[in-house]
Amino acid sequence: MNYQWYPGHMTKARRMMEENIKLIDLVIEVLDARIPYSSRNPDIDVLAKGKARVVLLNKADLADPARNRQWASYFQKEGILVQEVNSKSGAGVKSIQGLVQEACREKIERDRRRGILNRPVRAMVVGIPNVGKSTFINSFAGKACAKTGNKPGVTKGKQWIRLNKGLELLDTPGILWPKFEDQMVGKHLAFIGSINDDIILVDEMALDLLGEIISRYPKALEERYGVDVREKGRAPVGILEGIAESRKCYGKGETLDLGRAAGMLVDDFRSGRLGRMTLEGPEDLQEGKPGGVLEEDLSKP
Ligand code: G4P
């Protein structure tokens, strides 16, 4: 199936982003920890050039903990400060203040040398749709919602949330666009629910998703649905039939309702009921096939 799409509002988002980024010192880049490659904007290095940077692996609660650690060390090696967070519960959000200070140390030093003291760092949260930018802003800003700006004669139209005397956050996140040209990216975004399900065929998507789960997390299928991947020969259709049987998804005349089983699988994956899963590893980047199904994963217990 072709997962390619380009929502029209992305052109406007791009313009807004380019305008707002001029006002800030620090970019807080939010990624979905389940697909850190696919949820990353391809132009971010150019867009954020010269700015301090922090990467958040958000929805870390839904992602594989071992993979979270691998991705964190990948970004650290790239010289980017990184933090796993669950913006929904607030886990990991507190440590971000320290990270921001560290990321902006150079800027603060530079200001000091020029005699500028106590100028707050201005930050903006950015990311592609649905990665949790607004949830993060709410969690990070918490009750500190004393808005600055938007007063007559002061920065018109922009609202800044003053988090403390050293940090102000733009209250609306910068919306970025994904790597539209990469088929695998479209597919992974569809899996996590970032592409409107109305424009894709859920049954077909479920089979593609199943293919990746069979390869990366075969045990999860056994644990949740009692379907032994080895026994079923690893073919996604066979496994989906197994899921339909175990969940008693029958249509008219006792035929299996694979559509219902497909919907169930996708829901279970997205909500984390199937277990914590990450579909891309940093090693895939090196091989030039991010998210590619790794054969050697099949032999893992
Ligand atoms: P956006 O601004 O980047 O577009 O994303 P937004 O904050 O609207 O979040 C998108 C969805 O992701 C929301 O779910 C939100 O609750 C969920 N979410 C955000 N951060 C986390 C996280 O760290 N962990 C988990 N598990 N979920 C997270 P929703 O289904 O749209 O709404 P709701 O069901 O939570 O009300």
Strand content: 5-15%
CATH class of the largest domain: Alpha Beta
**Overall structural domain count:** 2
Largest sheet: 8 strands, mixed
Distance between the termini: 31 Å
Helix segment tally: 12
Mean pLDDT score: 86
Q: Strand pairing plus helix content: what structural class?
A: alpha/beta
Radius of gyration: 22 Å
CATH architecture of the largest domain: 3-Layer(aba) Sandwich
**Uncertain ranges:** 148-155, 290-301
Binned, the helix content reads 25-40%
CATH H-level homologous superfamily name of the largest domain = P-loop containing nucleotide triphosphate hydrolases
**Small ligands present:** guanosine-5',3'-tetraphosphate
- SSE pattern: HEHEHEHHEHEEEEHHHHHH
Number of strands: 8
* CATH topology tier name of the largest domain: Rossmann fold
Q: Tell me, what's the shape?
A: elongated
Short recap of the structure:
With 301 residues, the protein is an alpha/beta fold. The chain has 2 domains: 163 residues, P-loop containing nucleotide triphosphate hydrolases (Rossmann fold, 3-Layer(aba) Sandwich); 87 residues, Conserved Hypothetical Protein Ylqf, Chain: A, domain 2 (Orthogonal Bundle).
Fold and architecture overview:
With 301 residues, the chain is an alpha/beta fold. It folds into 2 domains: 9-171, Rossmann fold, CATH 3.40.50; 201-287, Conserved Hypothetical Protein Ylqf, Chain: A, domain 2 (Orthogonal Bundle). Helix content is 39%, strand content 13%. The protein has 12 helices and 8 strands. It has helices at 9-20, 44-47, 65-77, 96-103, 105-113, 133-141, 183-192, 202-216, 218-225, 236-246, 258-271, 282-286, and strands at residues 26-32, 52-58, 81-84, 121-127, 147-148, 160-164, 167-170, 174-175. Strands 1, 2, 3, 4, 5, 6, 7 and 8 form an 8-stranded mixed beta sheet that branches. Helix 3 (65-77) links the parallel strand 2 and strand 3. Helix 8 packs across helix 10 (236-246), helix 8 (202-216) packs across helix 11 and helix 10 (236-246) crosses helix 11 (258-271). The longest helix is centred in the last third of the chain and has 15 residues, at 202-216. The radius of gyration is 22 Å and the shape is elongated. 38% of the residues are buried. Residues 148-155 and 290-301 have low confidence and may be disordered. The structure holds guanosine-5',3'-tetraphosphate. Guanosine-5',3'-tetraphosphate binds next to helix 6.
